[in-house]
Structures are given as C-alpha cells and as structure tokens.
Amino acid sequence: xxxxxxxxxxxxxxxxxxxxxxxxxxxxxxxxxxxxxxxxxxxxxxxxxxxxxxxxxxxxxxxxxxxxxxxxxxxxxxxxxxxxxxxxxxxxxxxxxxxxxxxxxxxxxxxxxxxxxxxxxxxxxxxxxxxxxxxxxxxxxxxxxxxxxxxxxxxxxxxxxxxxxxxxxxxxxxxxxxxxxxxxxxxxxxxxxxxxxxxxxxxxxxxxxxxxxxxxxxxxxxxxxxxxxxxxxxxxxxxxxxxxxxxxxxxxxxxxxxxxxxxxxxxxxxxxxxxxxxxxxxxxxxxxxxxxxxxxxxxxxxxxxxxxxxxxxxxxxxxxxxxxxxxxxxxxxxxxxxxxxxxxxxxxxxx
Amino acid sequence: xxxxxxxxxxxxxxxxxxxxxxxxxxxxxxxxxxxxxxxxxxxxxxxxxxxxxxxxxxxxxxxxxxxxxxxxxxxxxxxxxxxxxxxxxxxxxxxxxxxxxxxxxxxxxxxxxxxxxxxxxxxxxxxxxxxxxxxxxxxxxxxxxxxxxxxxxxxxxxxxxxxxxxxxxxxxxxxxxxxxxxxxxxxxxxxxxxxxxxxxxxxxxxxxxxxxxxxxxxxxxxxxxxxxxxxxxxxxxxxxxxxxxxxxxxxxxxxxxxxxxxxxxxxxxxxxxxxxxxxxxxxxxxxxxxxxxxxxxxxxxxxxxxxxxxxxxxxxxxxxxxxxxxxxxxxxxxxxxxxxxxxxxxxxxxx
Lengths: 351, 351
Ligand SMILES: CC(C)[C@H](C(=O)O)[C@@H](O)C(=O)O
Ligand SMILES: CC(C)[C@H](C(=O)O)[C@@H](O)C(=O)O
Prior knowledge:
- Two copies of one chain form a homodimer.
- The first copy, chain A, has helices at about 15-30, 45-50, 55-65, 90-100, 120-125, 160-175, 190-205, 215-225, 240-250, 290-300, 305-325, 335-350; strands at about 1-10, 35-40, 70-75, 105-110, 130-135, 145, 150-160, 180-185, 210-215, 235, 260-265, 270-275.
- In chain A, the strands form two sheets. In chain A, strands 2-1-3-12-11-4-5-10-8-9 form a ten-stranded mixed beta sheet, sandwiched between helices. The first copy, chain A, has a two-stranded antiparallel ribbon with strand order 6-7.
- Chain A is α/β, with parallel strands linked by helices.
- Helix content of chain A is about 45%, strand content about 20%.
- Chain A folds into two domains: about 1-110 and about 255-350, Isopropylmalate Dehydrogenase (3-Layer(aba) Sandwich), CATH 3.40.718; about 120-250, Isopropylmalate Dehydrogenase (3-Layer(aba) Sandwich).
- Chain A is globular, with a radius of gyration of 20 Å.
- Chains A and B meet through strand 6, strand 7, helix 7, helix 8 and helix 9 of A and strand 6, strand 7, helix 7, helix 8 and helix 9 of B.
- Strand 7 (about 150-160) of chain A pairs antiparallel with strand 7 of chain B, so a sheet runs across the interface.
C-alpha cells in the first residue's frame, strides 16, 4: 500500500526519536512492499520560533491530508514561561482538536526485562496489561477560561455525545481484550462526572459481554499502585487521564518506551510517545527511541490497518528489550541510533 | 486546660474509629490534667436518615462553638447514588466551607514496621516524610455547576487571596521542616493554574529561607513514585490534592493510619482520618483506629496548642506499630478495641 505520513518532530529529543521511528517504518515498508511518503512539518517551540505560531496553518493542512501523523514532543525551557501568550503546548492541544482525535489510547505492559526498573515490587507488576482510553478533546483543556487581576476560572464541560463516543471506543477495545472496562470519574463532587457516569452506564448496556466498573479518581490513583494487574481498559476524562496515565507510566518504570495513539472518527490518527521533549538530554543522541517506534507500530495498526507489520515492530522491540542493547534510561549505555539499528535488525529475527 | 470537642462519627466505620480516638483523648486528659468535653453530632448519611440533611443546622452550630471538630467518615452504599439530590459527601464539603478550613494538612511517613506493606520497593520508601497542604475550600469542588440533558459543566475558580493564604500556610510549615515547598499545578493548560503559579512565586519571595519548586500535576504523579523522599511540603489545589494525597497514601501502604488536619484562620480545626467509611467492614470492630487517633493528635497540636500531648500520642502509636498488636489492614489480627487499649497503655511507656 501507499501511505502519506506527516511527521511533527517538534522540540528537544523529538527530532531524534522521530528519525529513528521513520527509519524503522522505512525498513518495514521495504520488507513488506509498502510505500510510505514522509513529510516533516513544524509544531511547538520550533514552530513558534519560525512562524510565531505553535501550530502553523501549513502544518495543519498537511496533517489533514495525511493518512497519519507521527509526533515527537513539544516544549522546552526556551518557551516555558507559563504566563507567555504563545506556548508550545498550545500547538499540541490545537492539533488534537483540529484532527478531532478524541480517544487517546495508552497501552501499558511491563516487559520482564524491565520489571527491576519499576518503583513497584515485582509481584505487583506481574500480568499488568492496561489500556488507558483518555478523552482528549474535551474537559477543562478546552473549556472557557477567564482571568482578571484577582481571579481566574477554567470551565470543564462535557456533552453527552462526547462521552458516548469515547465510551463506545473503550468498549469496542475491551471486546478484543479481557472484556472489562473501568470508568474513572469524581461523581461524588463534579457535575460533569455525574453526566460521565450516567452516560457510560447507559452505553455499557449496548455491550452486555463487557463488564463495567466505576471508580472515583482518588481511589483509582491508589488502586493503580495496589492492584495494577486488575485493570483491562480504563476510560476517563481528559485531565484525570493525563494524571493517571503518567502515574501508570511511572509504575512501569519505563517512561521512554510508552507509545500512544490518538484516534477520532476519521482515519487520520495522531501518534506520539508519551515522554516529553527531555531538554536535558536533547541533541546528545542518547534518547530512547522505543516510545516513538512503538507509536509508529500503533500508527500501522490503527491508521493503515497493517496489523501484521505493527506486531512485527512490537516483537522486534520486545526482542531488543530481552537481548539488548538498552538505552540509558533503562540502565544500558546504547545511544538512539544503536537502538534503532537493533530494532531494524530484529525485524528479520522475529518475522 | 478545658476544651470542647465536637465529634462527628458519621457513617460506616466512622463511629468505631472515633470511639477509639475519644478514649485516647480522655486518657491523655486524665494523665495531663486537662478536661475535654465531647459532644457528638450528625453528619453524612446518618444525618440524611435522621433529618433529611447531610449537614443539619444543629451540627454546624455546635461545630462553630467548639474548639475543634473530630470527624470519622461519611458515605456508604445506602446513599451512594451519585445522581441523588442529597448525598453524604455534601455534608463534608459543607462543613469544610462553613468552618473556612482552607488548608488540609496530610502528613505522610512510612513506619519501618510497615514498609513491607507498601507496593513500593523498600529503598524508595527510605526517608519519605512529606506534608501535603491541599487547598480545601476552593476550585472545582465549590464552583458553579450546570446540567442539561445534553451537557454538564463544572467551574474551577481561584482567587488570588485564596491562593495566597494556603501558600503562606505551606511556607510557614516548611520553615519548621526542611525548608522546601513543591507547588503542583497544570500551568501549561489551566488558567487557574497560571494564577496559582504566579501567586505562589510572588508569596515565596516573602520566605527567602524556603526553596520553591514547581511541578506539573502529571509529572508529580510520577515523581511521587520514583522519588518520594525528595519532597518536603507539597502545596496544591483541591482536586489535584485529592488525587495526589490518595496516591501518596497508597504508596505508604497503610491508608488506615493516615490522619489529616483542616485549618482555617480561626482556631476551629477539622480533623479526620483520610480513610473512608469502609462499609465492607463496618460494625465488625476490626477497623484500624490509628488514622483517627493520629488525627486526634493533630487536633491537640493545631487547635489546642498541646504539642507535648500530641507528640506523646504519636510516640504511643509508633510504639504499637513497632511492637504490635496490628490490625488486619496492616497484616495483624487485632480489633479496634485492642489497638485502642494498646495505644492507651503505651502512653505511659513513652511518656
Ligand atoms: C504537554 C501537555 C499539554 C500534555 C497534556 O496535558 O495533554 C501532555 O502532558 C500529555 O499528556 O500529552
Ligand atoms: C468524600 C470526598 C468528597 C472527599 C474529597 O474529595 O475531598 C474525600 O475524597 C477526601 O479526600 O476527603
């Protein structure tokens, strides 16, 4: 097949990890006779520097025409004044909204070779296999904001339709997994959470084969630590998802290798590692590219329907995790290029 | 000294743990010649059953006249429909607001005898000694809410004055500890967080002896797991504090023994264990009363200026943790009364 992929390297280590992911995609294309065309565009801090805008119109246009978008990371100390009018993160929020990618999938598993890196005791990690489905285009992230000298407000808003579509996505995904959905809210305090809970409960009736459980966000922050293996699909609103997925990433002990896929109704998906721009190590060629490479695998699966190729990349990454080389963040010494080459070499071993 | 303490046993295990805490306070009073007068009032589900209101006027009146308020827990399956008009949690939110207790202090330490209960590896727990200062009377908990058939909203609002007072409290507390404050917000997305951050930064200048660090809430959810010993005082807004303190409680592995103190400008403080009403074990006499007993110690320290007596209770609890008996939640077999008696007996050992 032919596919057009827009890359948004962004800031910090973004360009480095994206280079590696593109190289892996090219190696896969070569091996399986596909043809991927890549087009790089600006987003975030580098876009602000070049154009004054965190999401230039040309970037958005290219993304809308593409089959999929692969993003590195945005932000860095150069643009980090939270009071500034124009900030790199605005580019990220704007592209999510413009592409309508309301469901952010963050799968979490702990590779046996990495269990020792987790702050959690090993027995807690056994069988951890969670798929977070974070609502990505609603809530306080996109609500009305006000600011005076004396006060500020953020409005968190959810419509029933917004909750329905992300809930359906979560239940569809649960059907192909262990048939269990945990919906997280703060229904004892928030009105949006009460709407969330009643909508999720109603949609769940369409999926009698899937079990639904509700948890309050504060309890869930605990349960992720005490019973992480209990969860299958976890669906929640934007801000709670932001917090809980980072907590979950930390418990896996391996932030650098976690991918994400953001999906909407259309076919254009947005794929990005969940790590940030890591300005402290940018430009040194030592960033772990596995989060970006696994995001590229999700891209193949969800936007291009290339499930076999996606699984091949995931198996190659598993092979590298089992046999090395390892990057510094997971206790090794290998640089970005070395990991990239090892994954590409492993494509043949696992095929 | 003479003091009037209103007790609000509430629901579930609330009455059981509060009985134990009151017995310890009475034992302390006897030993040190103080006289504490206790008056029990209704709150939460039991108040709804008796009066139709989660916070009856008589309760509020008694609390306002008291020197301090000791609360058990509210809520339970009987009143758990989140769509109900009247809910037990409303009583809790209403009493916090009515008493103006804007600073919720949640100290977290891991007793060596309990390190094995934590989901975290032991080396991560060494030297964990964090004091959370959660803003308790603002934010989305108390903002305007709307609900139609199609949509719902919650407004998160903070005034500069609200942020200033809780920030000052955090810095004052840090002065008596390790002179380090971590302020947690989501300033890359929320307007209230940008107001929070600029206000905290400005107030910090009044405390040149205390170091200030800002963290985003998602990063903080990670850092609590990976570097828990790094934090001294952590100050944050209401909802972030709800989530992060529960995460922190879970990492300590011992929810049943964590206390909290909610303080305002006046002298009346509200003291409560951070555990909930635990309906599954209510009425069996097996709840761990140490969270309530340690909350009583905070009451002595913060509302009655009885620091020596507070420290004596804390030492007695430490003695029981070191030597047993232990309740079921921490791997023992002792019931509530046995733990209560052991703490009271230990008051003499540690005095
Ligand atoms: C950079 C920031 C705006 C973003 C978010 O909060 O969504 C990030 O934390 C994430 O989770 O992708
Ligand atoms: C019961 C609930 C309303 C409450 C809160 O969210 O504040 C509780 O979780 C707490 O932390 O004290």
